[in-house]
Design brief:
Blueprint lengths: L3 H9 L6 E4 L8 E8 L2 E8 L5 E3 L2 H11 L8 H4 L13
Antiparallel strand pairs: 1-2, 2-3, 3-4
């Protein structure tokens, strides 16, 4: 997820009893987001290790909480950024 709108869209399209992990690609602590019904109202539950479960029926408040935990960054794998600069003038370069 690269921006707030993408995160909002992903949360709004969650089904009842669905769980997603945010962000899924990092090796740091994982944040689990559940969509549940409580008192007849759909809400999001955010679970983080060693923290109290966060509950909210508002997608904007849930996104605000998630961005406090894990700000969105353009994560780039350093191995993908490695570029070897080699030029060949001909077939055999001596």
């Amino acid at each position: 997820m690269r921006n707030r709108a993408e995160l909002v869209e992903k949360l709004e399209h969650m089904h009842y009893n669905q769980t997603i992990t945010f962000p899924a690609a990092r090796s740091n602590f994982q944040v689990h987001i559940h969509r549940r019904i409580r008192n007849g109202e759909l809400m999001w539950l955010v679970e983080v290790k060693d923290k109290e479960v966060y509950r909210s029926a508002s997608v904007q408040q849930t996104v605000d909480y998630l961005l406090q935990l894990r700000p969105l960054t353009d994560y780039v794998n350093p191995m993908n950024r490695f570029v070897e600069e080699v030029q060949f003038d001909g077939i055999y370069n001596c």
